[in-house]
Amino acid sequence: MRAALAPCTYWWWGLACLTLVRLVLAASIPLSPDEAYYRIWALAPAGGYLDHPPMVAVWARVGMLLAGDTALGVRLLGPVSTCLATMLIVQSAWCWLHGQVAPEQVRAGGLRAGLLFNGTLSVGLGTLVMTPDTPLLFFMALLLWGLVGACIGGQRRMWLLAGLATGLGFDSKYTMLLPLAGLGLWLLATKEGRSWLRTPWPYCAAVLALVCTVPVIWWNAEHAWASFAKQGGRVGDWNPAHALAFMGELLGGQVGLASPLVFIFFVGAVWLLWQRRSSFATLLLCMVALPAAVFAQHALGARVQANWPVVLYPILALAAAQVAWPWWRSAGFVGIGLAGVVGVQAAFMPLRLSPHLDMTLRQMGGWPDFARSVSARVPEGAPLVADEYGLASELAFYAPERVVLGAEPRWRLFSLPHPACGTLAYLVLSHKRAGPPDDHLFEVLETLPEQARTRGGIVADTYALFHVRLRCPAPGQVYGAALLPGRGR
Asked: Which residues form the Glycosyltransferase RgtA/B/C/D-like domain (predicted)?
């Protein structure tokens, strides 16, 4: 590995520059609604949340401690952790290929794995926006590094690192269970795997992983298993009449999120894993094939969200280290360029596109100006309220001078202050949500002029504004209202 480092210096400088560019873009792009929502998580620490485990909140909280309650603070660990994950994948590839191919091919294989990992659109965009996939990808890379160290390098204690990475990956997103099931399959079904089961190390790793998951399990047990029920409930979705459309969406989503050229390398990597059948190649194949089979089975009767298989991208990037096609640099740089185009459009809008064509406009466009405009329309000191978690979270971040209330069932699960019944506030309601204000939640006192959220003169969305009184919930009514933490309040 030391011999491989010196000729690769310019690649490390390139990775450092790429990380710096990502940090600049992350600081320049307004928060998306989900990111603003995760910021609320970071300011209301808990062992779990309705939508996901808590690691994305930890990631955002650490970044905010270092860079303040800003967009850069929320996203800071995205580019940093991706940089570290890249280094782990490169070193894992070097260790795997060492002794199998010539030193020059070892160097090229490691760099190929790192570049293709960064060339996926999901990783490129995941460094610019904070999502649960951001920490998940880092812990997947750490898991692979631990497995390479144990199974290839003979360092048995690396199983403990693999166990730690597995537990923290589960704390990031529940899809971590799928490659873990593939690892379990390899341990049970192969001679090399069963030889490990005759040692204490995999069991110690499992205990360590289980300890890491205790906060998530504990939180769910105290909240009627809300998060497990929400995510696990999707397994029951079943509409086989649309199986062909769902399968097409699954395949098309992966071609898009991996970026087309990188996707071809990933397919080639799986083929080579199947052909070579070495012990570690079989391990990687199990960790890819079993989750892929689960996603394909689910797509026969329900929609598979495009980002679910992203958990496999570090494994596929590592496997692609052995795919020695000469155009790997082009594949990686094209993917990085595509992510850069999206990032520049989100930050500076050089292309004037409609909301139907511009995802960055729909998700991120115009939030700071919109929040200021709404705040200027209502009397001084009056609170704002929204019954949509993303909208309420955006107002809490970009209207720091206002008290912002969230009114929705999910807020009952947060350790946040709750407003008194009968509180007077101004309801902001997106026109994308059907119908008037919910009369179970609000008593409408007055209707005010509509407000538009725009960027560069192009309307991203329009919103109705109402003067309302919060109703007291009827017995058995499931909804909650909370005072959301703003900046400087």
From this structure: 51-219
pLDDT single digits (tens) 432-474: 776 788 888 899 999 999 999 999 899 999 999 999 999 887 6
Give residue-wise pLDDT tens across range 289-303: 999 999 998 888 888
7 falls in which pLDDT band (50, 70, 90)?
Answer: low
394 Cβ neighbours under 8 A, 6+ residues apart: 31, 33, 36, 367, 371
Report which of 122, 117, 147 is spatially closest to residue 133, judged by C-alpha positions. Answer: 122
Amino acid 104: pLDDT: 78
C-beta separation of 29 from 364 below 8 A:
yes
Whether residue 106 has pLDDT greater than 60: yes
Where is 390: in which H helix or E strand? helix 389-398
pLDDT of residue 351: 86
Token pair of 56 as six digits? 């994305």
Q: Angle between the 9-28 and 103-119 helix axes, to the nearest 10 degrees?
A: 10
Is the model's pTM score more than 0.90? Answer: yes
Per the CB < 8 A criterion, the answer to whether 135 and 81 are in contact is: yes
The single residue listed with the structure tokens 């990933």 is: 266
Tell me the β-bridge partners of 405. Answer: 385, 483
Are 170 and 140 within 8 A, CB to CB?
A: no
What is the rounded CA–CA span in Å between residue 409 and residue 427?
16
Domain boundaries, the chain: 2-347, 363-484
**Are the C-beta atoms of 335 and 280 separated by less than 8 Å?**
no
| Integer angstrom CA distances of residue 462 from 111, 128, 374 | 47, 26, 12
Transcribe 219-257 into DSSP letters.
HHHHTTTHHHHHHHGGGG---GGGHHHHHHHHHHHHHHH
**Cα atoms in the Cβ-side hemisphere of radius 13 Å centred on 74:** 31
What is the bridge-based pairing of β-strands 384-386 and 424-430? Answer: parallel
Reference 115, options 88, 92, 86; nearest CA is 86
Expressed in percent and rounded to 5, the helix, strand and coil fractions of the chain are: 65, 10, 25
Beta pairing, strands 480-484 & 404-408: antiparallel
The amino acid present at 20, given as its one-letter code, is: L
Strands across the sheet with 424-430, in order? Answer: 442-455, 458-470, 424-430, 384-386, 404-408, 480-484
Going by DSSP bridges, is the β-strand pair 384-386/404-408 parallel, antiparallel, or unpaired? parallel
Residue 212: alpha-carbon gap to chain centroid: 19
Residue 57's alpha-carbon distances to 1, 217, 223, 299, 389, in angstroms, are 35, 17, 18, 30, 16
Cα–Cα distance, 146 to 283 (Å, whole number): 13
Cα(32)–Cα(432) distance, rounded to whole angstroms?
A: 16
